[in-house]
Amino acid sequence: MKQARHPYLSMSKTEYICLSAAIMMLTALGIDIMLPALGALRIHFGLRPDSTATANIIVFFFMGQVAQLVFGILSDRFGRLRVLRIGFPLYILGGVAAAYAPTLLLMCAARFIAGVGASAVFTTTIAGVRDRFAGDQMARTLSLIFTIFLFTPIAAPFVGIALLSAASWRVVFLTPPLFGLLVFFWSFRLTESHPAEKRTRLRAISIQQALRQVIGNRTFMRYTTITTLLFSGLSVYVSGSERMVGELYGRPGLFAWIFAAIGLVMSLSALFNARLAAKYGAAKSVRYLLLAYTVVSALLLMITCIDGDPPGMFVFFTCIGALMAINLAIEPNSSALALEPLGETAGIAASVYGTIFFFAGSLIGALIGQLMVHSVMPLVISFFLFGITGTALAWGDGGRRNH
Fold first, then answer.
1. How far apart are alpha carbons 222 and 225 in whole angstroms?
2. Of 148, 294, 328, 398, which alpha carbon lies 20 to 30 A from 186's?
3. Cα separation of 53 and 113, whole Å?
């Protein structure tokens, strides 16, 4: 039986979900495949084994997402496809430049450019989903996209290790731009989802009005704040996972297995959330998932206080895996709830959303990461505070959103 076509879709929904996941994989691949190479980078740039400086190549990539605001405005004016096709070359060229950068500073600058490119493709992909779907259907579609793209952190560390065993770290760095080139060609099958009659004019007053409408929307800010807080914890885990396993616990050989196992749990969680959102609705799902997040983070904090810092390796990463899984179940629902009331300005709304949670989240995460030279307690405390705050925000919206 043929699948029903949705508005502005020139392909089956299955292919659209796969393509959207592949586009979003560019961000994950640009991070996860490089984590096994951070040790080689420390040697290459003459850094100490316990240095946190190499984590900056992850942080600067995340911080490149600040460009989402510009790309969101441009996509509302000129359409999603034009901006998408600007993002791919930036991502590819930035990735190649990072591989051949002579200093860590220049590498971080190139990674920032690659992050800017990733921000363009991320913004237009999220806005494109919002153009085609709404409400719980959007949450379910995003969950399916996330389920596919989350197989990246499962496989990427092993791919990185395999490449390191056969070649240098530069080959690892060149893999994401090569994948980006292949997805770029595939993306030409997409059709425009934001027709000319719905586009906003590129005028200062219209941009200000759109931004005011987005930022002034309490629902948008509520769920964007929740996602930002949780992403802060996620960014600390991702950028610091290789060093936590290798240095704090002294088991570098287990890094890829731990990272992949947590990635698998995250992917299954996103798939589970697709059913959860369909059955209970996005708002109710977020509220109870945040309660679970708070309980797990409180348990981890208690264990760390009793068992010592760092706590037992198995217990610590089991709790981390649970928190990351819950995080990935919350994010699609939170995205859908934040963007749902802003359909007419989906591009700007998606860009403001992405800018805040990527840029502010990675900045908060970087500050937390700097405190974790010999301790995991800053991360553990942060998880608990994020859970408490997010739960309060979500349940504060419960009276208006019971669907």
1. 5
2. 328
3. 19
Residue 231, Cβ density class (10 Å: 0-12 exposed, 13-18 middle, ≥19 buried): buried
Q: Take residue 269 and report the two structure tokens written for it.
A: 């969680």
**Non-local CB neighbours of 192 within 8 Å, separated by 6+ positions:** 8, 79, 80, 81
Q: Is 308 left (phi over 0), alpha (psi -120 to 50) or beta?
A: left
CA distances for 247 relative to 89, 119, 224, 253, 266, angstroms = 36, 32, 34, 11, 24
Q: How far apart are CA 146 and CA 123, in angstroms?
A: 15
What secondary structure does DSSP assign to 19-33, as a single string?
HHHHHHHHHHHHHHT
Q: pLDDT class for 329, splitting at 50, 70, 90? A: confident
Q: How confident is the model at residue 1 (pLDDT cuts 50, 70, 90)?
A: very low
- Is residue 67 within 8 A of residue 274, CB to CB? The reply is no
* Region 362-375 average pLDDT: 82
Query: Rounded mean pLDDT of 107-128?
Result: 90
